[in-house]
Amino acid sequence: MSAETSTPSDAVELTSTSAGTYSPDNPAPVIEPPRARTSRSPKKVSRTNFEMWAWLFMRLSGIVLVVLVLGHLIIQLVLDGGVSKIGFAFVAGRWASPFWQLWDLGMLWLAMLHGANGLRTVINDYAERDTTRFWLKTLLYTATVFTVFLGTLVIFTFDPNIQ
Amino acid sequence: MSTATVDNPHSAALDTAESTASHLITITLRVRRFNPEVAAEASWVDYELQMDPKERVLDALHKVKWELDGTLTFRRSCAHGICGSDAMRINGRNRLACKTLLKDINPEKPITVEPIKGLAVLKDLVVDMEPFFQAYRDVMPFLITKGNAPTRERLQSAEDRERFDDTTKCILCAACTSSCPVFWNDGQYFGPAAIVNAHRFIFDSRDEGGEQRLEILNDREGVWRCRTTFNCTDACPRGIEVTKAIQEVKRALITRRI
């Protein structure tokens, strides 16, 4: 694909330097459309439903996240004196209850996977070269796994008596 | 006194009759021109024309080609909104030049005419349609049946016909596909037009290849890339609800897989 992308600009360069010298015997170079869909382009039908599940996950996690995130924001920033109440003791008090542990765990996993999948589609849309695409996705998946792992670890190993 | 009252309307009518050109207005047609054998870059060229506001953009293009500059290149066949040859970007929107009246697109300002986006420009307003038609061929837009062909017509109820009536109207002008931001960025996406034509057979009660087409559209470059921006529905000169058709294919995939 990267080779194809560079062809049109080369062809146009060539054309501009020798303008007007083309004839039926010496035709102008064919301009390849960038990343064209031709009969030769690879037809790798994936046969998995991954894209469908990813699409469904975005819709369903979005609905759940509206409740989780809005609830989180109201509890943290509006109720009981707002943002000034937040401190180590406040977090420790909430995470003493398994309900809030599960709430925060659900919010962490859903928000991270929702955001990562959104960025994956953005990379698929805008990264032109396969190598760029590969490295951006590697970076994205690494960051996602790291953040999810670290957040989960903190939620379950949180020690309110830490010195 | 009586002669004066008769004279006034008569002279007004006479005025319009005498100046037959009075209904013509001056328009500026700003065309995005590109000739790879002359210059590497495309450029805007303005044409001042005397046109009737009830004429179409295609008539203005004809006037340029026939009277001012014969090198202007564009596609048109039937010139009546059926063949789908002259889709172009007029004032920033994809339309058929043969269905766009000058009076409807503010002839006071320069009217910009560009080739449709997302496909390689060959010359002036002519683009390479091959990727578009390859995507169309890939969804197998023909009747697929099993067993022997019947000795008479394949009958269908009015309700079954109504199910896919909207998507039979497609004229393959590429106005929808070339208005899709996903297609602009990734030419591998099937695009709205191919999905519309797959929809036309997936929901046809006589067809038995629906599962094969759904399999193709379930792929990485299939319906799941649609971002429901509704550009395709806005662009369709036939008024097909394109985004709705794409969503119906998505729904069919989900309900048949789960």
Automatic annotation (TrEMBL), chain A:
Keywords: Heme, Iron, Membrane, Metal-binding, Transmembrane, Transmembrane helix. Pfam families: Sdh_cyt. InterPro entries: SQR/QFR_C/D (IPR034804), SuccDH_FuR_B_TM-su (IPR000701). It is found in: Membrane. Residues 1-24 have a biased composition (Polar residues). The chain crosses the membrane at residues 53-79, 99-119, 139-158. Residues 1-43 are annotated as: Disordered. Coiled coil: none annotated. This is Succinate dehydrogenase hydrophobic membrane anchor subunit. It comes from Streptomyces humicola.
UniProtKB/TrEMBL annotation, chain B:
It comes from the Bacteria. Its EC number is 1.3.5.1. This is Succinate dehydrogenase iron-sulfur subunit. NCBIfam families: dhsB, PRK05950.1. Binds 1 [3Fe-4S] cluster. Binds 1 [4Fe-4S] cluster. Belongs to the succinate dehydrogenase/fumarate reductase iron-sulfur protein family. Its cofactor is [3Fe-4S] cluster; [4Fe-4S] cluster; [2Fe-2S] cluster. InterPro entries: 2Fe-2S_ferredoxin-like_sf (IPR036010), 2Fe-2S_ferredoxin-type (IPR001041), 4Fe4S_Fe-S-bd (IPR017896), 4Fe4S_Fe_S_CS (IPR017900), Beta-grasp_dom_sf (IPR012675), Helical_ferredxn (IPR009051), SDH/FRD_Iron-Sulfur (IPR050573), Succ_DH/fum_Rdtase_Fe-S (IPR004489). Keywords: 2Fe-2S, 3Fe-4S, 4Fe-4S, Iron, Iron-sulfur, Metal-binding, Oxidoreductase, Tricarboxylic acid cycle. PROSITE patterns: 2FE2S_FER_2, 4FE4S_FER_1, 4FE4S_FER_2. Pfam families: Fer2_3, Fer4_10. Pathway: Carbohydrate metabolism; tricarboxylic acid cycle. The keyword Iron-sulfur applies. Residues 25-119 form the 2Fe-2S ferredoxin-type domain. It catalyses: a quinone + succinate = fumarate + a quinol. Residues 160-182 form the 4Fe-4S ferredoxin-type domain.
